[in-house]
Amino acid sequence: MTDFLSPKERSERMARIRGSNTRPEIALRKVLHSLGLRYRLNRADLPGKPDLVLPRHKAVVFVHGCFWHRHSDCSIATTPKSNTAFWVEKFEKNVARDNRVTALLNATGWRVFVVWECELGSARKAQATGERIAELIRGEKGF
Ligand SMILES: [Zn+2]
Q1: What's this model's pTM, rounded to 2 decimal places?
Q2: Residue 20 sits in which domain range?
């Protein structure tokens, strides 16, 4: 990660990237759709605005950027060497928010699945990840 942006500039840039319709998310959607799963996008009425919502399966999927959401043991989840305290605080907030959102969704009966961007880094990875997630989504009895 280059460091020539100020934290604020980078923050703004990443916020934009973080929005829906990122490339990894589209890759996952395509695979899930090809496997016959139907979903809705970014349901604003649910905590955390999940990227994909599968009402039939009572499941939601978040596609998380590894850097922002701190994918553990992932090479993308670096910590910038300048303004480190700023970043650490920001990351902690993001992770805390993710945990809170998951708890809220679980409390209302939603199953929460997280897919990391590095798991969608190529068409082949996206296919394998999509198949795994589809199986998990369908796996649980009673849905
Ligand atoms: Zn990752």
Answers
A1: 0.82
A2: 7-138
